[in-house]
Write a structure and sequence with these properties.
flat; 55 strands; 8 helices; eight-stranded antiparallel beta barrel; single chain; mainly beta; 26-stranded mixed β-sheet
Length: 762
Amino acid sequence: MARSLLFLSLFLPAVASAAPSDSNAASTPVRRLALLVGVNDGGPGRAKLRYAVTDANSFGQVLEELGGVQPQDRLMMLEGDRSALENALARFKAMVAAAKSPGGRTEALIYYSGHSDEEGLLLHKDRFGYRELRQALEQLPADVRIAILDSCASGTLARQKGGVRRPAFLVDASTAVRGHAILTSSSEDEVSQESDRIGGSFFTHNLVSGMRGAADATGDGRVTLHEAYQFAFHETLARTERTRGGAQHPAYDIELAGTGELVMTDLRTTSAVLVVGEGVEGRLFIRDQPGRLVVELNKLAGRSTELGLQPGQYTVMRESRGASSQAKLVVDKGGRTMLADSAFMPMMGELTAMRGGSAAGGDGLAMTTPVEGTGRHRRFLNLGLLPKVQTNSLFGDTDVDNALSLSFGVATMGRLDGFALAMGANWNADSVRGVQTALGLNVVHGNVNGGQFTVGGNWAQGTVEGVQFAVGGNWAGERVEGIQAAVGANVARKGGYMGQFAVGASVSSMSMKGAQLSVGTSWVEGDFEGYQASVGLNMVRGHMKGIQMSSGVNYVASANGAQLSLLNIGGDVRGMQLGIINIAGKMNGLQLGLINVSQELESGVPVGLLNIVRNGQFHVEAYGSDFNYANVALKVGSRYLYTTLVVGMGSIRTRGPSHWSTGVGIGGHIPVTERLFVDVDVVTHGIHEWKGGEGNRLLHQARLMLGFQVASHFAIIAGPTANLLHGFDGEPVAPLSHLGTAGSTTNKEAIWWPGLQVGLRI
């Protein structure tokens, strides 16, 4: 069974908040409508899905509870064919049209869960093409049009265009936005999967969990598109790595122009909130009274998490550090229910004593103390000589918790609360609070609160609060709150507040704040706030707030800050790009380099030898002047500032064709009326002789060009020039202008004259 999620937003002229939450949003009434389609039957030859209808209902429920969709604005179509979908789209179009009101905004959302292939949706024996779907979306009379598909093979559509993630399109204040967004639950060559355990598809289940509050990384009570996607991405990948279908790697292609963050759900609008306390940590499975899995998340200690739920009774099962526990509670309407760590009780049937406990009872060695709920004992000191030859091994197969461990080989233990030193490696089955030092490896299957120091590598499956220093590499499976430093590579899979310093590479698979410094590559998969520097490549796949500095390449999906490198590439950039080549999707600020390229320049200035702006100037001019009978010029730049490159050919009366010229200049464009404009610029030409003659000279021009736009792509241009000609090494020059005595002898090293040029602009 293959399923994937596609999220696309088309033809977005302007937007507003999904759930108004401030004065700006409240001043513009927003009405969101949703069409929810679920079809398990994809036709002959395809396995019938089990949870497509369930997913449609679950997504519709979270939209109604937290996403601003009223019951009367929700239309369901379950287990229908092509004709049923066409009728549903027609009804939905009429609903959207009826919802429009003066001064208000409408948002139309279509969700589909079922089968599809590379060409379209599969509904029983029928197919509804992607092109037809796009046309249906275009015809919806809404300010914002959104489609979400959870279906087979839709990842093909996400790779039709390359894209960058930019600020999302449902924002707290009305903003003009254009473009589209595509999210897929798997790559084009991977299957997507559904699960009997969760009763739905992995990606939709994780997306809904995130929208209920598990993805609220900022703790502001709202879940944005980026937060929900990042949460669903990492949870889906983590939960499918060991399945028979293989790991899913959700992908996206977003091409949007606008500002702000898409608010998918607002937790402050729900009637019941479950607050998971700061002390709770582990993977949580929250089920309602009928036993349905409502939310699943990996909770970290140190900050609370708020979840928007329906009032009722819930059971929360927790897996943490190899042990299971559960809590039962009631979430009341209109209230905030607190779930504390003390509410969890050990699960019945869990081991609470050491395996093979009798073996330890009669060995007569130093006393050990059982560690409640772990099946382990605690021993202050562990001494080791070789692998498996240590005092902890005298207690059978049981991992022993230690406060001090000294080993010439490999030391294995459960939890460390203190200090461990090994010539080979330290291996902890649980967490570390203290310091690990080794020549080879430090391995921790839990969290690290303290430090890991090694020549080889440090590996922590959980969160690192402290430092990891290694000559080889550092790995943190969860967040890092501290420092990673290595000659090889640093990896923090879930970001954090940290500094990463490496000769090789520093990588964060999710958002982070702090500094990344490396000789090779600095890479952040999510958002980044701070300072990123490398000799090779800096990469931020999300939004950056800070500085990127590299002698190679900087890349950022969107940025508030500065990029300093030989090659700077950005999506939406607010700030500065300084480099040899600067490329931006949407630029607000300064581009300073030899070549500057932007798809859209909202405000700011590109300064360089060649400035190319898609919504700016791009003109070819052909004209004659008083010193060249033929010139061709390319003018490129922003709306008001441009650079020009000129190639010309000329002659003087006494010699016939005698020289050619190349020039470069910078100027300003001034629109006067709809058809009339003025260009003012300065250009420096190199005058080159065809054969012999006076040698190379420089001609500097100040030009005033008047233009009249005859048609959309055709204008007449003419105007006066002021010209200064000089040679090199004090050699005298002869006049070039045909308005005077061209070619006459002069003893002057530099001459100037007024000139004229007339031509056409295309």
